[in-house]
Structure formats: structure tokens, C-alpha cells
Amino acid sequence: AQSVTQPDIHITVSEGASLELRCNYSYGATPYLFWYVQSPGQGLQLLLKYFSGDTLVQGIKGFEAEFKRSQSSFNLRKPSVHWSDAAEYFCAVGGGNTDKLIFGTGTRLQVFP
Amino acid sequence: DAMVIQNPRYQVTQFGKPVTLSCSQTLNHNVMYWYQQKSSQAPKLLFHYYDKDFNNEADTPDNFQSRRPNTSFCFLDIRSPGLGDAAMYLCATSRVGGGNSPLHFGNGTRLTVT
């Protein structure tokens, strides 16, 4: 079955600290992978995507993610977190002949000063 | 700027009173989606249109319907809202199927059922 797992429901970091949000997927075909961010009361905004090629992808707001096929993972990273990064982060997978994305359950990030 | 616009941002309706949520896009994307998102949960796909072709998710209640009169507009109709339908409703678009191209989301409509 196709699925996305985000093992961490809630993460708290200090401003300036590094961040890694985990994402594991199960997908029968070549996956297209996405990270979205959602601020309170807002829609989802695309941070970055992986379709093919270089497995380390850069996104907006200083985020990057690395696709590791052997581990079925697509973890999101940021070297130095800012208070404005506090939000909900969703990993998603799609691809093949489907019109649909499958979302993970999200990780809520809190940032302390 | 090209975008996805949802109106209204907040909608209050009474139990059982029909309500319509609207979504418009200036991206000229082929695909439009409606998601339901409850607090602290992932967005749940209700249905989507690929051009005029309507695709309903198997577990979407019959109470939820949709219309897409043209490329730019898509509506979500809830025929008889129940308390359990209170949620954020997100509209999204993609150039081609969402599995193969990014989704562009509106800011959502938060529905309250009294």
C-alpha cells in the first residue's frame, strides 16, 4: 500500500539550532516527493520537490531535503532555524499514473527563542 | 500574481443548512482538488477534477458534492452539514495530475457548523 510516515508528531527546537524532519514513504512506482509547510489558518505552501536527478534538493526559506531510495526516506533539513519557521510540515508522495498526492500526518515545529 | 483564491475565509452555517464554498484560480491549471482538513490532521482528499472529469474518493460522503463550471472555478457543496463536517476546506490546483506536479493551495475556508 502507498503511504507516507512522519514519525515525529511534534518537534521543539531553539532558534538557531539545526533541524531535521523525518519522512518515510512506501510507494510502488518511482516516487515524486514533496514537502509542504502550513502556517496556522493558512493553506499549504510548497517548500521543495524531488522528481529525479540530484538526490539533494534545495527549496525555499533555506530548506533542503535528501532522497535516499535505499531507506525510502526524504528527510527535510535546515541548518539554522528561525522563529518564523514555526509551522506544520507535511511530506507527500505521488507519481506514476495517479492524480493524487498522499500526505503524511504532519510534524508540528515549535521554535523557542 | 497567479493564485488560488477561496471565499469566504470563514463560513458559519447551521446544522442541516446547505452551504457552498468557492474556489477560483488564475493559474489555468487542469486539475482542481478539494481537501478537508481537521485539526492537527493531514489534508484528506474529497474529490478532484481533471478538466471536466470528476473523480470522487471512495470514502467521500454523498453529502459532499462539487461543480466545476469552467477552468477557473470550482465549488464545494455540502448538502446537509453535520457537526462532524466542521473543518478547514482547502482547494488546490495542479498543472497536471498532482502526483506529477506540485499542488498550489488556497488559504482555505474554515467551516463552523452550529
Molecular structure report:
The complex is a heterodimer of chains A (113) and B (114). Chain A has 113 residues and is mainly beta. In chain A, 0% of the residues lie in helices and 51% in strands. Chain A contains no helices and 12 strands. In chain A, strands 2, 5, 6, 10, 11 and 12 form a 6-stranded mixed β-sheet that branches. In chain A, strands 3-9-8-7 form a 4-stranded antiparallel β-sheet, with no helix packed on it. In chain A, strands 1-4 form a two-stranded antiparallel sheet. The model of chain A has no long low-confidence stretch (mean pLDDT 92). In chain B, the strands form 2 sheets. In chain B, strands 2, 4, 5, 6, 9, 10 and 11 form a 7-stranded mixed β-sheet that branches. A 4-stranded antiparallel β-sheet of chain B has the order 1-3-8-7, with no helix packed on it. In chain B, a hairpin with a 6-residue loop joins strand 4 and strand 5. Chain B has 114 residues and is mainly β. Chain B is built from no helices and 11 strands. The chains are: A mainly beta (113), B mainly beta (114). The interface between A and B is medium-sized, with 24 and 25 residues.
Q: Taking all residues together, what is the mean pLDDT of chain B? A: 93
Tell the overall outline of chain B: globular
Portion of residues in helices of chain A? Answer: under 10%
Overall 3D form of chain A: globular
Uncertain stretches of 5 or more adjacent residues of chain B: none
- β-strand number of chain A: 12
Note the run of SSEs of chain B as H and E. EEEEEEEEEEE
Oligomeric state of shown chains:
heterodimer
Distance between the termini of chain A: 41 Å
Mean pLDDT of chain A: 92
The biggest beta sheet of chain B, please? Answer: 7 strands, mixed
- Summing up helix and strand content along with how strands pair, one would put the structural category of chain B as mainly beta
What is the chain-wise order of helices and strands of chain A? EEEEEEEEEEEE
Radius of gyration of chain B: 13 Å
Structural class of chain A: mainly beta
Termini gap of chain B = 36 Å
Largest interface: A-B, 24 and 25 residues
Approximately how much beta-strand content do the residues of chain A carry? over 45%
